[in-house]
Amino acid sequence: MSLSPSQIPPIRMAVIGGGITGLAAAHRTIELCQDQQRPLTLTLFEGQSRLGGIFGSEWKGDYLIERGADSFITNKPSGINLCRRLGLEDEFITTNPHFRRSLILSRGRLIPTPDGFNLIAPARIWPMLTTPLLSWSGKFRLLKERFIPRKRGLGDESLAAFVRRRLGNEMLERVVQPMVGGIYTSDPERLSLLATLPRFLEMEQTYGSLLRGMKRQPTAAQDQLHSKAASGARYGLFVSLRNGMQQLLDTLEQRIVAQTRKRMGPRVKMLRRLETGWEVTPEHGASQVFDGVILAVPVHVASALLATVDSELSRLLGGIESASSAIVITGHDLSRIRHPMDAFGVVIPHCEGRRILATSFLSRKFSGRAPAGKIILRTFVGGAMQPEELQQDDDRLLQSVLRELGDIFGIEGSPEFSEVARYPQGMPQYTVGHLDRVREIDAQAQSYPTLKLAGNYFRGVGVPDCIQSGEQAAESLLASLLQQAEPTF
Fold it and tell me: How many domains does the chain have?
C-alpha cells in the first residue's frame, strides 16, 4: 500500500549558499518535487544581505552596470536551458557585432587580436604572420609548431608548459597568457590545461599539431573559428539578458520565494551529521535539522564547515586554492577618450608590467547599457599574479586603475561614476592535477549520500558550469532522499 501525497511527510532540505549555484539547486529541487508531487520544506541559508553571490546588475543613473559576470556562453546548455524554463528566452540579447573583437596591449600599444585566434591556437596563419604582437623570431617559432612531436599520453600539464612546448615562449607571454590566464585570474605556470582547455591536448594527440588540427576541424567549427567573431574569446557564443544578469537572479528568486524559507544575514557556523539527517547551526539563531543538505558555498567555506564532519574531505577541499580579485567599474564620456574604443575590451600581458589584468568595454559588448556618447569600463585587478594590488583600499585602487586607463586609452578627467567590487577568494585555481583532486573529493563525498557539494571549484567556473553543478546536486540529493523515504508496507 502506498500513501497519498497528503499523507507523505515533507522532505526537509537545506541549501547553504545563495549564489547562482545555490539558487539553481533550490529551483531544481522545487521543480522535481512538484513534478513528482512530493511535499518539500526547503530552507536557503545566505550569509550576505542579498542573493546572487558574486554577480548582479544595478542602474547607476542611466548606466546599467554589472558587478560580476556580464554574460554566459551558449555552447554549454545549462544556462540557456534554465533561462528557457524560467520564461526568459525572449529576453536574450547577443553581443554587438559592430565591435566584436578584442585588443591586446603590446609594448604600450593596443593591437587587435589576430583574426581567427582561438584562446591558444590560430585557425589562420596569415593574421599571425602580419600581427605586430610577435617578433619575426616569434613568428618563425610558431611556424615550427607543425614539426614539434606530440607528447606521449594525455597526462596533465600546465598551460604555460604546453604553449611553450608547442608554440614558443613569445606566443605564451604576448598572446596566450593574457587571453587564457585572465579568464581564470591564474598563473599559467600552474594552470591545468586538462581541467580548462582539454580540447587542445586532444587536438595534439589526434593531429600531432595544433595548426594542423585547427585547419581540420569539422566544417561548422571551421566557420566559427575562421570568423572575426572567434578572435580571442568566442564572442558570438555569448548572450546576456535585456535588463542585465540581475534579471536571471530576480526571476530565480521569484520562482523559489513562495516555496523557500530564506535565512539571510547570519552565516552557517556549524554542520553536524546526525543519525537521521543533518543539523545546521547559524551564527545567530537556533539550529535546524534537515534530511539533506546542499553545500553551495566557496570551496574554502565548504572546507571549514566540513572540518568536524570529515577531516579528510575537508583537507581535500582545502587543497584547492582560490585567488582574490576586484572589478573597478567606471563610466566615461567618449569625447574625453582619445582611443576609439572600437572593441569589446583589452587584455594585458603580465610582461607589460601594468597594474591591471584587463578592461572590458561593457556598453560596447551589449547595447543599451550606457547613454549615447558614454561608455562603461570594467577593469579587472588582482588575481593569482598580482595579489598585492588588492592590499590597497578602494580609493587608492580606483586611483591606480584610473592612472592606467588614462595612460592606455588617453582618458581625461574623472569618471562620471565609479564602483569597486571585491571578490575575496572568489576564483578557485585549477592547478595541475585539479581533476585528480576532484575525483578524490567525489570518492570521499560518496560516504554521505544526503550531503551534496556544488560550486565553481569542480569542473568549470562559468555561469552555466555553476548552474549545472547546482542542478546536478539537487537531482542527486533528491534521488537519495526519495530512496530512503520510500515507505513499504
Answer: 3
Domain containing residue 336: CATH number = 3.90.660.20
pTM (whole model) above 0.90: yes
C-alpha cell at 176: 596566450
Compute how many other C-beta atoms are within 10 angstroms of the C-beta atom of residue 335.
8
* Nearest by Cα to 461 from 76, 112, 177, 96: 76
φ, ψ dihedrals at 300, nearest 5°: -70, -30
Kindly tell me the burial class for residue 305, based on how many C-beta atoms sit within 10 Å of its own C-beta (0-12, 13-18, 19 or more). Answer: buried
Q: What CATH number is attached to the domain comprising 185?
A: 1.10.3110.10
How many degrees, rounded to 5, is the angle at CA 89 between CA 59 and CA 373? 35
Eight-class DSSP state of 172: I
Inter-residue contact 470 to 21 (CB < 8 Å)? yes
- Domain coverage including residue 163: 117-226
Q: In degrees rounded to 5, what are phi and psi of residue 210?
A: -70, -40
pLDDT in tens, the chain (489 residues): 455 555 678 999 999 999 999 999 999 999 999 999 999 999 999 988 888 877 889 999 999 999 999 999 999 999 999 999 999 999 999 999 999 999 999 999 999 999 999 899 999 999 999 999 999 999 999 999 999 999 987 789 999 999 999 999 999 999 999 998 778 899 999 999 999 999 999 999 999 999 999 988 764 344 443 344 344 456 678 999 999 999 999 999 999 988 888 887 779 999 999 998 999 999 988 999 999 999 999 999 999 999 999 999 999 999 999 999 999 999 999 999 999 999 999 999 999 999 999 999 999 999 999 999 999 999 999 999 999 999 999 999 999 999 999 999 999 999 999 999 999 999 999 999 999 999 999 999 999 999 999 999 999 999 999 999 999 999 999 999 988 766 543
In a domain, 236, yes or no: no
